[in-house]
Amino acid sequence: MVILAEAPGHSGCGYPKVFIYEEFSMSPNLSLERPDLKTRVKRLIALYDPRIWKEKGIWWTGGLFLVTYFVVVIILGIIWSRSPATFDVHQNALEMLGGDESKLVTGTYTAATAIRIGDTLLNKPGGYLTNDMTPPGVYLDNIPNWEFGVLTELRDLADSLRNDFSRAQSQSIEDKDLQVAQPQFNYNSNSWILPSSESEYKKGLVALTRYLNRLADDKATDGQFFARADNLTAYLQLVEKRLGNLSQRLSYAVGEANLNTDLAGDPSARQSTPVPVQTVQKTPWLQIDDIFFEARGYTWALIHTLQAMEMDFKSVLEDKNALVSLQQIIRKLQDTQDSIWSPLILNGTGFGPMANHSLVMASYISRANAAVIDLRKLLEQG
Questions:
Q1: What is the Cα–Cα distance from 123 to 130, expressed in whole angstroms?
Q2: pTM here?
């Protein structure tokens, strides 16, 4: 290494300054290079050596553990907040039935999809978070609202399986396993213990699995799924109401002035409590992202359910020339699962410079809902 220095005795005497060059070798123990990643990791691990704790004292050690705790909680929170990916409905049903194609009879796709939706709800990264009482689940709100949306669709599907799809006529006997499964999914979603929500939902999944196995068993005639147009129509009527509800709540993110049309079209209609002719409805600021993720969870589950029904009701849909209509609904709903590139759910004004994620989601859902209404009418009249 070369050092440039001023020669002694020449400073301030009017003579030109004389500089001398001195060259010396750097000590092998001295390095100006930054430590590599491996070295940094070793230094970080060394902080957790009990000898270091003893040397630094109790306050330093306590601070180290507190910082470590917060880092772990934040990282887990980020990982657990990711929505699960979609799955292949056909492959899922095949795996649940041991890979035997001959067991994929009418109804097995819908039943297997219901089981997979419930299993994802309980066993995704972090498990079921809605009823968590400890960090990081207790402070997360996006994924618990996503869970509630999924649970809402699962409840509707279980109700339709019990009251419509598994029954030939209104005077028929209910399926014994669906009698158990349907009320289990209606248990309180926030119960932490005695009993926990997870334990009740698991009982429902076990009952659904028994129903699926009886469907696939050609010797068990008591397990039935009736793919009829009127059964599918009844389910689509329920979907219409759910999608319409979500679309309206999402639209209220920017506030809307609405005229009261509750009794429109029926001059003799009455309601229990009078309401103003015009109301202004706006979603509270802290609830905007809650509704967004609830809608995202519901549509995630609905996509898979409709894909399963496309297979189970294929002959009915083809007879009504409605198969393409259902496929179009599924395609519209898939737009709701696009990646969110913003770290926050933005709530810009209608034509303002910022995006409004709630209005975009409402647009996707409204278009899908209009297509569902058209499909239902086609099944009824086509």
A1: 13
A2: 0.83
